[in-house]
Amino acid sequence: MTDKWTDELLAKVKRLESEFERNEQKFTSRDHANYLLEGVGAAPLPSEFARLRHRARTLLSQPGIPRHYYEGFLFSEQIPVAKSGQHVRGVLRALAEDLEDGNIPPIGVMVRAETHSDLLDLAESLLDNGNSLPAAAVAGAVLEGHLRGLCDQADIKVKVGNKGGSLGKYAKALKDGNLLAKDVYRTVSDWITLRNDAAHMKVDKVSEPPVRAMIAGLRSFMAFGSRT
After folding, report:
1. Is 125 helix (H, G, I), strand (E, B) or coil?
2. Minimal CA–CA distance to 117: which of 173, 125, 74, 201?
3. Nearest to 110 by CA among 6, 217, 216, 187
4. Domain covering 107-224 in this structure, CATH number
5. For all residues of the chain together, what is the average pLDDT?
6. Which of 64, 165, 191, 197 has the CB geometry, 3.0–4.6 Å to 110, for a possible disulfide?
7. For the chain, which residues make up each domain, given as ranges?
């Protein structure tokens, strides 16, 4: 299963790979003979190749793309341009094939996961400083984003009005679609209650232990899936 971000990334990777291929003869032509013979840094980098390489660097360093593709690109900067272009093209081709074969999780999912992890770090920091209410609110926002993402992945349509209650609707839709195990649903419902208590400033019901348990539970929930 892919998502819009993954499809867009795949199209960009293929376009850039094609540009490298079309310009490969230029990079190895006699016009750059001195550069090729003397190696990296011996002469100004051909402008078209420099442009494409900068585009590849930007593309491969995007959030959600596994780090080893960017590291493969960095290696291309340590070899003569005659081989560098071919190497970058190989990295782009490998990324395209992995995206097509489903070897990489949907990019949107990975970006959300990175963002949610950062937000849970923030919630934990707030909790460590004695701020249980905002910590629970931030954790609740992460929960809502994750549940919404699961619904989007499964193409489950959930009607959310302006009066709130979206968290419960997402959770129930996932349970009804057999995408949320009953015990997990009960735990998620407890988290929703805690988040709502925080939103309504019920200080006596939002203490440090349950908020900390919620944050730890959310990390496991996002890492291991909705049926664990």
Report:
1. helix
2. 125
3. 6
4. 1.20.120
5. 81
6. 64
7. 4-101, 107-224
